[in-house]
Amino acid sequence: MSARRRLRAVGALVRRAPAPAMLAASCVGWAALMWSTASEAAAHAAHSRQSALLMHAMNGMDAAAETAAAPHAFAVWPAMILAMAPLLLMREVGRLWRGSLRRTRMPTIGVFLTGYGMMWLALGIIVVPLSQVIAARAGLVWLAVAVTVVWQCSPLRQRAVNVCHRAPALRVFGSAAQWDAWRYGAITGGACAASCGPVMLLVLLAADYHLAAMVVATILLTAERYHPARRPRWRLPFTPEPSPEWLGARSSRSSRVVRGT
Known about the structure:
Blueprint: H1 3-15, H2 19-53, H3 58-88, H4 90-99, H5 105-135, H6 138-153, H7 155-165, H8 174-205, H9 210-225, H10 244-260
C-alpha cells in the first residue's frame, strides 16, 4: 500500500466512530500531562527559591525533592498512557465497536481497555523506579539509550509489533465475549508495552524535555503502528521492506552460486 493510500485509510478511520471519542480521551491525557509537567516545573522553581534563602537546609531539602520525584513520576505514567494509547488503538477499538452487539458494545470496549491498561500499569511499576535509578548516573542514561536503540532494531521487537497487528476471532455473546475482549486487550497491551516500553523509559529520563520527548515518541510510535506487519529481522526503524522481486533475484543468485560450487 502506498503512503497516500495509507494516509487516506487512516483519515477515514479517524472520521468514524469511536475515533472522535478516542481523540478526545487523548486530548485529556495530553492536558493532564502538560498540567503535571507545569506543576513539577513550578515545584522545582519554588524549591530553588527556598534553597537560595535557606542555604543551611539545602541538603535536607534536596533529599525531600528526590523522595518526591518518584511519586510524581507514578502520577505522570497514567497520563502518558492516556495521551498515547487512544492513538495506537483506533483499529482495535473500532473493530470491537463494529463487531459487538449494540447493548454490549461499551462493556466490551471497557473490558478490552482494562486488559490493555493493566499491562501498561504493570510495566510502570518497573519502569518508573528504574528511571529514578538510571537518572542518578549519566553512564546509566547512555547505557539505556544504547539498549533502546538496539531493541528498536531487533527482530524480537518486530515480533512484538506484529502481535499488535493480529486480529483474533472474538465471540459475541455472554461472558465469552467479555473474556475474549479482555484477553485481546491484555495480549495487545503486553505486546505494545514490550515494543514501546524502552522508548517510554527514555521519555521519563528526558527530565526538562519530557513533554517534547513525549510528543516525538508518540508521533514515531503511532506512525509505526499503522505500518503493515513486517518480517522479523535486524533493521533500522522505518527502513523499507525489500521488494519480492529483489528477494527473488537474490535467492536465484544464491542458488546459481550453490550449483556452481
